[in-house]
Amino acid sequence: MQFTIDATQNKARACTIKTAHSTIQTPVFMPVGTQATVKALDANDLLSMGAKIILGNTYHLYLRPGSKLIKKFGGLHGFSKFPNSFLTDSGGFQAFSLSDNSKPDENGIMFRSHIDGSKHYFTPQSVLDTQYELGSDIMMILDDLVALPNTKERIKKSIERTTKWAKEAITYHKQQQEKGIGVHQNIFAIIQGGTDKEFRKMSAQQLCALEDFDGYAIGGLSVGEPNQDMYDTVEWTTTFMPENKPRYLMGVGTPEDLIENIHRGVDMFDCVMPTRNARNGTLFTNFGRVNIKKAMYKEDALPIDEECDCYTCKNFTKAYLSHLYRAGEITYFRLASIHNINYYLTLMRKAREAILENRWEEFRKEFYEKRATK
């Protein structure tokens, strides 16, 4: 991976990440393709919108169809036909959240498949082995997640385990690369600690001291805590993260969350929100959200967003989208998802331009002013 900082304005950054499969300009939003597909879209849809990186999930792909099968088809790139970069989450969050009785210990996480109840065990090494077979460009390591709120003892234990597993993961990754495995794959560590400043500092300092990692993520946020707590935690945590490596905030979030965390020094984001909200009838625009379920849109001859240049807005009206949604037509899911993903990707491109042109503060102010006029 090559990483360069192209411009900064206060804490906001415009950077370039080069992987084996694409050049990624930040700030960047990564559409979530959990099952090696962004729901309702295919590789051509994503390429037409300029997506340079999408996210796949190790837990889901490990269980179905299996990483060995995906490897036979040329990894995620050959299997899905999306030629640009993939980032794969380690699957630790899903093992924790989707299994009724996941049990972490000092060496890994035991869990039952949400598909058939079969038992599985993730270790720092095994999740990397799966990701080597998937062939992702950026691999996330296994971390120990805890439900919040929780006791200080349990959060401290999660940090200790996460650091221990990070050391095991980076050692194993270097050993595998010496054998010619994962040579073009990059590895990110995940900072934990809830919203407690001392715990976040502890986790960040321990992990960032392991300098062989290619980037660092902030995990364990956007799990129900107040937005301001998330913003304060990110602002605090980034001060302990190296400037010369990518910073990734996992699972975030709304357009407002992206703008506020770019403002606090984050480079990379992912979230299911644009596609999940699209399927549920909520469409993001420059002027706020549109709930296509409302009766007021049944005869609306305007596009979702008159400032949007996506395929959906250039060709279809809100009345048509309203009809498709009410009729339960599958086409609605695709058209709505195209619009929402395009909105997120465009927002990131405009944010980058503003940072490069030294007008980030003005851009951020205009972002909120447009929403206030609706």
Automatic annotation (TrEMBL):
It catalyses: 7-aminomethyl-7-carbaguanine + guanosine(34) in tRNA = 7-aminomethyl-7-carbaguanosine(34) in tRNA + guanine. Residues 251-257, 275-279 are annotated as: RNA binding. Binds 1 zinc ion per subunit. Residues 11-372 form the tRNA-guanine(15) transglycosylase-like domain. Substrate binds at D89, S90, G91, G92, F93, D143, Q192, G220. One of its GO terms (cellular component) is cytosol. Its cofactor is Zn(2+). Catalyzes the base-exchange of a guanine (G) residue with the queuine precursor 7-aminomethyl-7-deazaguanine (PreQ1) at position 34 (anticodon wobble position) in tRNAs with GU(N) anticodons (tRNA-Asp, -Asn, -His and -Tyr). Catalysis occurs through a double-displacement mechanism. The nucleophile active site attacks the C1' of nucleotide 34 to detach the guanine base from the RNA, forming a covalent enzyme-RNA intermediate. The proton acceptor active site deprotonates the incoming PreQ1, allowing a nucleophilic attack on the C1' of the ribose to form the product. This is Queuine tRNA-ribosyltransferase. It comes from Malaciobacter halophilus.
